[in-house]
Design goal:
With 328 residues, this protein is an alpha+beta fold. It contains six helices and 15 strands.
């Protein structure tokens, strides 16, 4: 039997010993600093050794610690809010994964409690189970999710569990780490401990790789692809002069993207009269003003607002780490 779950990581309160501790810039930035750019004289974000203390450093840099929430996979038509309640084996296995992260210094969130709280506050408004997962991710303020696939095999010669863990950046779905573990066959019905037997010796390298990749995101930003098109039949193209400076539209967009990208890091792959592709635009992990998570949709929304300021209509679509802008 195959089970899939998500372990979701977010920011925990300062003070606890961090599992994937990273330093991030303070949320407040002085006036005159462009969003996404480094503040002059501020220390560059870097990694912090796991288990280190989490108070802010002398340069005003605070420690980031993850929270983890294990979320069950649901087949089409299954109710994510009742799935765990119907299968004790799933509850045991997921509880042991949650406990393993607890033992390594992380703070965890109980999935069923989070779903009940979201239902009470009206956050979960859709009957689409995939969309419900998206809503839970969005409201968890997560940085990383770990997909845990459990293959449970029962037999006369003993029971066995195969564990596959895959870590992703929740903002872009970029892969961070993966591992596979096998428990071997044992005469036991404790599915939780059986699954963790297959994962325990591989968990530390998995977390170390995750931390290194997460540290790069903190220091250099999330990488997104920006694909901008002008619909066929529009009365303008990317050579159109716009704004008070009479820049070509392609140049005005390039300047805006570079100014608003994290540390001004953006690369244009190519342009035509009706299409521009930036194959690597870095966006910040956190909003520099509020400290909340910063995602591709936020960057796209601000770009659409800029285009509307030039009297150009545009729509946005987000697919993973790709931003699609359609201009009319």
């Amino acid at each position: 039997m195959r089970i899939l779950a998500f372990a979701i990581l977010a920011l925990a309160p300062a003070g606890a010993a961090p599992l994937l501790a990273q330093r991030v810039p303070p949320a407040t930035r002085p006036s005159g600093v462009t969003p996404g750019t480094a503040r002059p004289g501020t220390a560059t974000p870097g990694s912090v050794t796991p288990g280190s203390v989490g108070p802010a450093a002398a340069g005003g840099v605070a420690t980031v610690q993850p929270k983890i929430m294990v979320v069950p996979f649901t087949k089409q038509g299954e109710d994510i809010r009742t799935l765990l309640e119907s299968d004790i084996r799933k509850r045991l296995a997921i509880a042991e994964i949650k406990n393993a992260f607890d033992q390594r210094g992380a703070t965890t969130i109980d999935f069923l409690a989070a779903v009940k709280a979201a239902s009470t506050t009206g956050v979960l408004k859709s009957d689409d189970q995939a969309d419900l997962k998206t809503q839970i991710l969005a409201n968890s303020r997560a940085d990383i999710y770990v997909e845990a696939e459990l293959d449970l095999n029962e037999g006369a010669g003993g029971n066995a569990c195969r564990v596959i863990l895959q870590a992703y950046d929740v903002g872009t779905a970029g892969s961070l780490a993966n591992m596979i573990g096998e428990s071997g066959k044992f005469m036991t019905d404790d599915w939780g401990k059986l699954c963790m037997r297959g994962a325990s010796d591989k968990l530390e390298p998995f977390l170390n790789t995750m931390q290194a990749k997460f540290g790069d995101v903190v220091a250099n930003g999330r990488s997104v692809v920006l694909d901008i098109t002008i619909q066929t039949g529009a009365a303008y193209n990317f050579s159109q002069e716009v704004g008070a400076e009479k820049d070509e539209l392609r140049d005005a967009i390039t300047d805006w993207v570079e100014e608003n990208a994290f540390k001004n890091n953006a690369h244009v792959q190519g342009t035509t009269e009706l299409r521009m592709i930036f194959d690597d635009v870095r966006i910040p992990l956190k909003d520099p003003t509020t400290g909340n998570n910063y995602n591709p949709d936020r960057f796209a929304r601000e770009l659409v607002r800029f285009l509307r300021g030039l009297n150009l209509a545009a729509d946005r679509t987000i697919k993973g780490n790709t931003i699609l802008i359609s201009m009319k």
